[in-house]
Every structure is written in structure tokens, then in C-alpha cells.
Amino acid sequence: MASKLSANSYGKSDVRLTKVVREGKTHHLAEYSVNVQLTGDFSPAYLDGDNRKVIATDSIKNTVYVVAKENKFASAEDFGILLANHFPNFYKQVKSATVEITEARWKRIKVKGKPHPHAFVNGGTEVHTCTVFVPKKGKPPVIHGGVRDLQVIKTTNSAWKDFWTDRYRTLKDTSDRIFGTSVTATWEYGTLDADFAKCTEAIRAALLETFAVHPSLGVQQTMYEMGTVALAAVPEIKNINFRLPNKHRIPFNLDPFGLKFEGDIFVWTDEPYGDITAFIERE
Amino acid sequence: MASKLSANSYGKSDVRLTKVVREGKTHHLAEYSVNVQLTGDFSPAYLDGDNRKVIATDSIKNTVYVVAKENKFASAEDFGILLANHFPNFYKQVKSATVEITEARWKRIKVKGKPHPHAFVNGGTEVHTCTVFVPKKGKPPVIHGGVRDLQVIKTTNSAWKDFWTDRYRTLKDTSDRIFGTSVTATWEYGTLDADFAKCTEAIRAALLETFAVHPSLGVQQTMYEMGTVALAAVPEIKNINFRLPNKHRIPFNLDPFGLKFEGDIFVWTDEPYGDITAFIERE
Amino acid sequence: MASKLSANSYGKSDVRLTKVVREGKTHHLAEYSVNVQLTGDFSPAYLDGDNRKVIATDSIKNTVYVVAKENKFASAEDFGILLANHFPNFYKQVKSATVEITEARWKRIKVKGKPHPHAFVNGGTEVHTCTVFVPKKGKPPVIHGGVRDLQVIKTTNSAWKDFWTDRYRTLKDTSDRIFGTSVTATWEYGTLDADFAKCTEAIRAALLETFAVHPSLGVQQTMYEMGTVALAAVPEIKNINFRLPNKHRIPFNLDPFGLKFEGDIFVWTDEPYGDITAFIERE
Amino acid sequence: MASKLSANSYGKSDVRLTKVVREGKTHHLAEYSVNVQLTGDFSPAYLDGDNRKVIATDSIKNTVYVVAKENKFASAEDFGILLANHFPNFYKQVKSATVEITEARWKRIKVKGKPHPHAFVNGGTEVHTCTVFVPKKGKPPVIHGGVRDLQVIKTTNSAWKDFWTDRYRTLKDTSDRIFGTSVTATWEYGTLDADFAKCTEAIRAALLETFAVHPSLGVQQTMYEMGTVALAAVPEIKNINFRLPNKHRIPFNLDPFGLKFEGDIFVWTDEPYGDITAFIERE
Questions:
Q1: Do B41 and B101 contact (CB within 8 A), yes or no?
Q2: What residue ranges of chain B have pLDDT lower than 70?
């Protein structure tokens, strides 16, 4: 019985880069975690332990820092494009490169109401994400932006009713529930020349505002509306992909204590959670 | 060989409460994780499995929700006082009660620049903490407020030099380094009548602003200054306790690549970290 | 500008099931976290908030428990097959169902050297995984088994040398390094009638033994060998897929202290890590 | 308004050490995360930024590796004693030192049924812990050993009944429930000359066996019995301290589906959890 190597890739993950750009007294700060994955002519390493064409993952790590040093860039996406192009351009043996970047949301600390030139506070669990895929030397990169773990909640204007009834249903219809979720969304750019940082903020604002004002009949419907508004707001993107966990807030049963539930006392939960996805494109 | 029970306590931890207060169209949202620990006359349960005086932890959990339902409160601290007093007041067999609360920092989503009445976004890893300890029925509670995982960074105005030299030292003096930390601080209130929510915001602002503007000669010095400014800003507190991890940003060695480090390219790290504490009191 | 819904799915995730089977005095324990994702005729919920065909994720959760109650099964895979078939069989509006299961590795506690009939200890981070995909009512399920976070390390018999040299390389060749990783592997079954629990143990043993004895010239080569041995050992599987992080142990630089590195003192690290993949099939 | 520095300490945390001892073909592997905290004459650093007596936390980190290199030791406790003594012995300005060590439980991989000389597999979340406190130069260290996150479960032989009844109680008596917990225990040694590794294994076995066979009337009672048996088994320890979360398995309500609960179908939960402590001494 023999076996064959049908696919392979490798790279370095969680390369942690801090870059400070000093523009006079004003400093700009970017902190990324970078993953690089390469495909190419690497099967001899798997089959025979012949590593001669393998770029050590340590060298890939070094490259992340050197490319950050030698270039100016305005966003994680712009850095991702530089880095993802580098590998197939520099190495004959590399076919494709995928660069994934996770970016912390550092914001300037306000001192007496004014943003400080070099001190920052972190917005927390929410991160900006992007992925740049260069399929082959000379081919245009495929660029995705995204947001992960953007936690939101609305305490009303959300219903869940008229759904399928059968033996397995125990949940009652409700016209007024809490809707909490942690938004993970990715979107694909249709152009290389976008102002990516500006697009990210515009999409994020569209997602937040639509979540807030939409009269929700279900996670599915609100998710579709969020995608539709984001696509309308930012022509630079072609599509948007969502995965929304429904982080249930369960009414606490006050009956045994002679008290009445008035939309006020809930148990917040992490699990189990409804897990809803959609892929929405421009028509 | 015999053994004895020298101390014991028990309770329920991570009780997850969502409370919505509906003030017309404006909703107020609080989400807490609550821990309750009791001491008292419970040794028969340990020694003989005699549970007759033991309040089930499930009943403790129910109490959290019922007290939340039956009372109005303006802050986690005010809720903690109500809850911590409840146990020694209601149960003869309870001596002391300790209530620990962790509160998520939900902020209103802005829609067209205005805070939305019922939709919120979460500021992330940072949480507000408080602990209320009632040592005995009728005794005044001991109240601590706090902040946990408030992540901050400054890219300059921070030195680390002239420290002890011996065989184990390899670190060089630096006059300009990045200073990043995740602030965990707790403070003790000297009064029961504080506006706790306002105090929390004032202390948080004092910590952030002092971190930003202080010309730092070391984590120790900046920590002491942060405490001094907080104590001056908020007379309601008696002392403040810090634990600051020094989340090192390490200059990336660019020499092998013929490039020069200019305070620009760093490796951000989680570990190992300097771990600095201080307890600062009003004189 | 209009948008369209190009794809969608939904379900319930992290449904936590404990099942105890009582066979006289001997109890059998299984603890699963179950994810269910469905596709089908659900676009009206997204487009119009019309939920009439939507099975609530709460009902999906109930189904997990009811199917566990009403059936006997010998492994997570067998339970997954029952559950994944249920949805397209029971609901006209469901097209495909995907069931993902994560299973804790409970082992019997030994008392005086003998396995206890009803007390268990957990093997920890390592979990057994499986995925069952039913593409359509009546179609045979696609079954994957797997292992996640199986942590292993070998302190010698591992080299990394003769790799590509260029401007970005700083790492030296080594003939003797530590090789540590956390094995995540999935494999596809070629039959519905396997004894899945037995196959899982046989593959796990093949992975562990091959890791231990293989003279490693690189993660890539050892990974390929592990796959080859697993395929040879268990004819019931068609292919195996690996993702191995290289959890680097970095020699600590003892030079400044006048001491010599002798393959003895290392820094263990989580990040950055080499990240190596392969997909290996039977020829 | 002035402030004063009432207490302070500092050190380095999460220093990650791998030590390999090569005894011919047989290798011994230890992996520790080490925290060091010092007190002493360090207030000038806080008050004036005068760092001249401060040992940089980077130097503390170096010391961990150098002490590991220059000494032989048989357990984390023995290493902790060496390291905790070093600081007050070597530095005039250091008063006390506390060393906390967390140790991974690597076990040898079995190849053809025999333990392999240099390949290991990790038992998972469970870790061995120890703390060594040297209060002052020349004083004997205070040594604690421990275990953390030792997950256990028993499916029967556990009751919870006859507890306090009042308005807040909704839980019914049960004579047969699942009892699951994650054992965290620490114990204090009464001697410096113990075989610490052997003691750790004996206490761990006593905890596991007692958990398995004890007819439990409550977590409190079983915890006390576990402590009593451990104290009897290992004369080298003076006391034992427990914190046991009650990781509830909640019977799933099968009534709506016309099915009967037979001690078989449960929801496993992380939160909220009963949180029970005891401190048990030798009489």
C-alpha cells in the first residue's frame, strides 16, 4: 500500500510586528499578527527530506520585518499586498502566497479632550482582519478585508416568531427579545487602488448603524440588510460574507419567586449559540 | 493521624446577569458576571455531609437575579452592596459575604453622530470590577472598585536606564523605548455614599492621562504617579493597588539585513513580562 | 445598486451533550460539543424575514438531545451519522446537513490499579473530532475523523539543515534540535461500516509511534511519514490531512554568562510558529 | 493631598524554561513557566525614578536560565528552592523572593508498549504547581506543591439533598447526580528534604482514588475526605487547601418530547458553577 502527497503548503504564523512611524512629534502605531502560507515546488522536502528549495519559516519571519522596514504603507491591506507579491516575485520555487493579517484597534488616548500624539488605548477584542492571496507571479492579488469579534447588542426592536413547528420545538414566539452578537464579516475588494483604511471604517459604520436601526425579524434578515447597506455604501467591495453567532440572552424565570418578567432580567450565555451565515454579492 | 477543617467558604461563581432598565424609549443595559462567597456555620456539611444549613449554590444564583429584579441600583458597586448585605441579613448561619462583580463596558452605538437609545457596542477586553465584603451582619461593607485589562501603549517618552549591573545583566540602557501595559488596578472607597460610576470614570481618566503625559523613567515611577494623580482626583477613595505587566516591545535586530533600527520595527510579545506591583495610600 | 444572497446556511453550535450509558454497575460516559449547520430553502428568512420554513436553532438543539436519547451508538462518528441523516430525512426544506463533534477524552480512574466503573479523569487539551456531511437526502454521508491538540515533543533525532540561503536567512543549520508540535489531523473514511472508535485509536497510535521513532529531517518529512504509516495501518481511511505548528524550542544564549549550550537549556515558545500542512492520499 | 507607597514588589512572570537532561540515550524533559517576585529596597524607583538598586526584570529572566544550567534538580520544588534562595543571598537590596512554577505533565510515548527514551506526549490541561517563598536571607523556605485543572467526573454515587429551603430555593433533592469538577489543590510541606516528585504523585493518587470511591453527600464532604486521605498518605505535608468548582451536569428536560429522564441525558456547563473551598490541617 503506497501513499502520495496530493497537496501541501507551509509558512509562518503569528509573526508579531509593531511598526512606529514618526512624523515629527506625531507617532503612528500599527500592531499586526501576520500569517504567511506558501505553495510551490516543495514536495522533495516531504518525500525525501530534501530541504534545498525550502525557505525556512524563520526566514519568512525575517522577511515580514524587513518588508515592513523598507516600505511605507497606509493600511494592513497595503502591507499585505507588498508582502504577498514579494514571495512569488523573489523565489522561483514559490507559486502562490497567502498573507493573513490581524490588526489591533489602537486609538489615541484623549488628554484634555485632545488626541495624544504618541499614547494609545486598545479597543479590545475587536480586530481588523485582511487576507491577500497572490495565486501566481504577476497575477493581481485577491484582497479581503474584514472585522472580527465586533460585539453588539440591542435590547429591543428584535422579534423571532412564526417559525417552523414540530415535535422538536419548545421555543415560543416572541415579538421583543434581546439581540446580541459578535460580528465576524469579510469582504472582497474589486480594486487594488482603494483607500482601504477609509473603506474599513465606512463598512464598520454601516454594519453598526444598520444593526442599531433595523427592525429585526431574525438574525438572517438583519444580516442580509447589513450586507446590503455595506455594499451600497462602499462601491470598492464586490461581496460580503457573514458569520453571526446568536449570543442568546435568556429571560430568567421569575415565576417561582412571585415576580413578573418585564423584559428586564436575563441570563447572558456563550453557548449553545445560533450560528448564521450568508454570502451577499452585488447584483 | 487525624485532620481538622481550619477554614472554609463556598458560593456560586460566574452568575451571568443582564439587566435592562426601560426609561421610555431609552434603555439602560448592564451585564455582570457575579461571584458570591459565604462563610458561616457550614462545617457539618464538610465533616458529616450534613447539609441542613447549607444554602444551595443554585439558590445563591437565584438570589442574584431576584435582588436584581427587586431593586434599583446605579452601579455594580451599588448592586454589590445590596447583594452582600442580603446574605448575613437573611440567613442566621451566614457570617460574611463577599460579592465580586465583573462588568462589560457596553457603550451606545452612534447613529448619525447620536447615541442610540437601545443599541450598544462593546469596548472589548477592558472590564470594570468591584468587590463588596460584608464581614458580619450590621457591619459596614468594604468596597473596592477597579479596572482590569485596560490596554495602553506609548511609543516614546519612556526610558529604562541606570539599573543594577552584574553577571546576569545583558540589557542595555535605553532613553527611548515603547511602554505598553495592560492596567489592572483596584481602589478602596472610604465612603458608602459615593457616586461610584462617576468615580470610576474619573479614576480611569486620571490613569489614562497620566500614563500618556508622564515622562517615564520606569514602570515603577509611572505607576506611582498614576496612583498619586488618581488619589488627588477622587477624594472618595483611600488607596489604590496596581499590578502592571510590562508587555515588552523588543527592537527587531535589523543588522543582519544591512538596515538600521530607528525606533520603528519591534516584536510585540506576551511573555515573559515584567510584573510590577504597588499599593499606594493617601498620606 | 442591488444585492443578492448567493449562499447561506445556519444551525446551532456548541450544543453540549453528556450521555451516560448504564450497563449494570459499569457506566459509559460520552461528552460532546456538537455543531449542526443546515442548507436548504431558507432564503425567504434572509430576504423578507419570512421564517415559516426555518427550524429554530433552539429546536435543532433539542433534536441533538432527543436523538442522543432515542438511539444507541458506539462512537461520535456513529452519532454524527444518525444526526446528520435526520435533518434531510425529516425536513423537506433541508438540503444538506453538516454535523461537527468534539469529544473529550475521559479515561477511567484507576483505583488499586483497576479501572473504576463510574469515575473518570480527563486527558486534557487533546480532543477527538469528527465531521459528518450529508449532501442530500438519501446520499451516503461523508465521514471524517480526527484528533486536535495532541501535544508531542522529542528532544533529539530531529535535524533542520541544507535549506535555502539568501538575504533573509539568519538561522543556522542544526543536526540535533527539539521537535515539538501539537498534532491536528483529519482523515476521511472510505466506508460507513468501520469500527470508528477502534480506527481512531489505531491512527492515534500510528501517529504517536511514528513521531517518536522517525529520524526527522524536517516537519514536512515526518508529517508525510506519519500519514503514510497511518494509511497503511488503517485500511478504512482514504486520506489524511495534517496541520502541524512547529512549536519552537529556542536554545538560550548562554555565551554572555560564560556557559556552554549543550542541547540542554531552551526557551519554549508559542509564537511565531512554523505552520506546515499536507494532504496525503492512498495511491 | 499627598500619597505614600505602602507596599511594592516586582519581578518577571511567565519565564519559559525547557531543560533536557541527557543520561546516555535516555533524555529527561522538564518544561516550566516561572514567576519571580521580589521585595526589598526598591522604593526610590517608584518615588524618584532612581533605578540604581533595581535588578532589571530581564536580568531576573536570565537568572532563571543560568540557575537551571548550573544546577541539578529533581523536581520543580527543588529548582524553586535554589532559585528563591538565590535572590536574597546574592543581592543585599532584596528582602524576600517568591518563585511560582507551573509544570507541564509530559509523559513518555509508548512504542510497542515500552516508554520511549526521548519522545513525550502531554497529558493536557492538568499542570503541577509549586511556590517557594524565602522571607529573608538565611530563613528556611516555605514550600507549597499543588495540582491545577485536574478534571474528574463520576456518574453516580453522589447525592445532594436535605439542604436549606426558603423562597430562593428551586432545586430539588437528588440522591443520584453526576459530580464533575476540576481539582485545584495546594499543600504545604513540613520539611525541606522531601522527595517532592514522589509526594506529588502520592497526593495525586490519593485525590483521584478518594474522589472515585467516596459515597458523596456533597462537594464539601468529598473535599474534606480527599484532604484527610491525602494528609494520611503523605506525612511530609502539613495541610492542604482546595478550591473545587462544581461543574454542573444538568438533566436535560425530556418531558416535552414524551421521553423519560433515566440518569442518561445531561447538559454539561461551564457556568455558573458552585465554588467550594476548604483548608484542612493535620490535627
A1: no
A2: 1, 123
Question: What does the pLDDT read at residue D1?
Answer: 55
State the virtual CA torsion across D248, D254, D260, D266 in degrees, nearest 10: -20
What pLDDT, in 10s, does the model give residues C96-107? 999 999 998 899
Closest approach of A189 to chain D, Cα-based (Å):
40
Q: What whole-number distance in Å separates Cα of residue D247 and Cα of residue D152?
A: 10
In this structure, are residues D83 and D98 in contact, taking their beta carbons and an 8 Å threshold?
A: no
**Closest to C38 (Cα-Cα) out of C11, C8, C67:** C11
Between CA D97 and CA D86 the distance in angstroms is 9
C-beta of residue A81 within 8 angstroms of C-beta of residue A144:
no
Please indicate whether, in this complex, the C-beta atoms of A15 and C232 are within 8 angstroms of each other.
no
- Cβ distance D150 to C121 less than 8 Å, yes or no, reads yes
Question: pLDDT for B56-76, tens place per residue?
Answer: 999 999 999 999 999 999 999
The cell numbers describing C236, all together, are: 478504512
Cis status, amide bond into B272, omega within 30 of 0: yes
The alpha carbon torsion through A48, A51, A52, A54 (nearest 10 deg) reads 130
Q: Please give the residue that has the higher pLDDT: either A122 or A135.
A: A135
Residue D57 φ/ψ, nearest 5 degrees: -65, -25
- CA separation for the pair D203, A282 (Å, rounded): 64
The answer to whether the CB of D276 falls within 8 A of the CB of D243 is yes
- Interhelix angle D219-233/D196-213, nearest 10 degrees: 140
* Closest to C165 measured CA to CA, from B101, B201, A226, A59: A59
Residue type, D151: Q
Per DSSP, B262 falls in state: -
Give D55 to chain B, closest Cα distance, Å: 5
Count, in order, helices (H) and strands (E) of chain B: 5, 10
- Is the omega angle on the peptide bond into residue D272 within 30 degrees of 0, that is, cis? yes
| Annotated catalytic residue within A12, A61, A86, A247 | A12
A256: nearest CB among D170, D256, D257: D170
Q: Which residues on chain B place their C-beta less than 8 Å from a C-beta of chain C?
A: 167-168, 170, 256-257, 270
> Angle D249-D252-D256 (CA atoms, 0-180°, nearest 5)?
170
ipTM over 0.85: yes
Q: What is the DSSP string of B58-71?
A: HHHHHHHHHHHHH-
Which of B28, B57, B155, B228 is the catalytic position? B57
From residue D4, give the alpha-carbon distance in Å to each of B228, B283, C181.
8, 6, 49
pLDDT per residue over A49-79, tens digit each? 999 999 999 999 999 999 999 999 999 999 9
Task: Please provide the DSSP assignment of D83-141 as one string.
Answer: HHHHHHHH-TTEEEEEEEEEEEEEEEEEETTEEEEEEEEEEEEEEEEEEEEE-STTSPP
Residue A23 CB-density burial (10 A; 0-12 exposed, 13-18 middle, 19+ buried)? exposed
Contact B11, B38 (CB under 8 A): yes
Which residue from B127, B129, B139, B128 is spatially nearest to B192, judged by alpha carbons?
A: B139
Whether D78 has a pLDDT exceeding 90, the answer reads: yes
| Contacts (Cβ under 8 Å, ≥6 apart) of A235 | C1
Global pTM reads: 0.90
Q: Which three cell numbers stand for residue D236?
A: 511530609
C-beta neighbour count of C167 within 10 angstroms? 13
Rg of chain C over all Cα atoms, to the nearest angstrom: 23
Q: Which amino acid is at C139?
A: K
Cβ atoms < 10 Å from Cβ of A223 = 31
Whether C265 and D118 lie within 8 Å, measured CB to CB: no
Exactly one of C86, C95, C247, C248 is catalytic; which is it? C248
Contact (CB, 8 A) for D93 and C278: no
Cell of B25: 424609549
